[in-house]
């Protein structure tokens, strides 16, 4: 059975295994590791797979993810606060889901409010569908209704995940299917 939890250092080993699965698939960005560019007033920030192999660095990475929920956390100007939750099961880390607290022009076209990634070995078991369903009340509590969720035009499993959660197709932009998902009570 899946659960959504706040990022936590206790998932270190299974997180690294998942990051390795994403890298082997050719999609290392799906692991959720952070690389933020430096700009005026922000020094930049990077947590690579090699960095987080060290438990102390992994703990700092977890602290960073939790701090991203706060408006006052330093970040590049084009980035918005977000809440990330980890999808876990009895074996550990399965994936992640993130709620961006507001949309920029880029997110309105391409990224949406919510993004998620499930490690390859855990796909096809309903983890993403579960996680999206569990995030909708958080969206509603933040006053986001409906929430924009996008996926690649050729990502049939993600399309089904969004539609199972009530997503209403709006259009396709720059290779992304765009859906609005209601977050309030039916």
UniProtKB/TrEMBL annotation:
* One protein family per Pfam: Acetyltransf_3
Q: Where is the N-acetyltransferase domain?
A: 32-186
**Full protein name:** GNAT family N-acetyltransferase
Q: Does the keyword Cell membrane apply?
A: no
Determine the domain of life of the protein's source.
Bacteria
Provide the alphabetized UniProt keywords. Transferase
Could you tell me one molecular function GO term of this UniProt entry? acyltransferase activity, transferring groups other than amino-acyl groups
Which species is listed as the source? Nocardioides mesophilus
Signal sequence extent:
none
């Amino acid at each position: 059975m899946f659960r959504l939890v706040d990022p936590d250092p206790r998932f270190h080993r299974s997180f690294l295994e998942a990051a390795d699965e994403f890298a082997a698939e050719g999609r290392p960005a799906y692991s959720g590791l952070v690389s933020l560019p430096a700009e005026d007033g922000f020094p930049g920030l990077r947590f690579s797979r090699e960095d987080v192999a060290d438990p102390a660095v992994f703990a700092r990475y977890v602290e960073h993810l939790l701090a991203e929920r706060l408006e006052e956390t330093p970040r590049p100007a084009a980035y918005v606060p977000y809440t990330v939750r980890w999808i876990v099961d009895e074996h550990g880390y399965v994936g992640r889901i993130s709620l961006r607290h507001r949309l920029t022009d880029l997110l309105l076209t391409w990224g949406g409010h919510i993004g998620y990634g499930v490690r390859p070995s855990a796909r096809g078991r309903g983890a993403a569908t579960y996680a999206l369903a569990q995030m909708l009340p958080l969206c509603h509590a933040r006053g986001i209704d409906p929430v924009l969720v996008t996926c690649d035009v050729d990502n049939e499993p993600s399309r089904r995940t969004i539609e199972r959660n009530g997503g209403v197709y709006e259009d396709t932009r720059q290779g992304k299917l765009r859906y609005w998902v209601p977050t309030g009570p039916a």
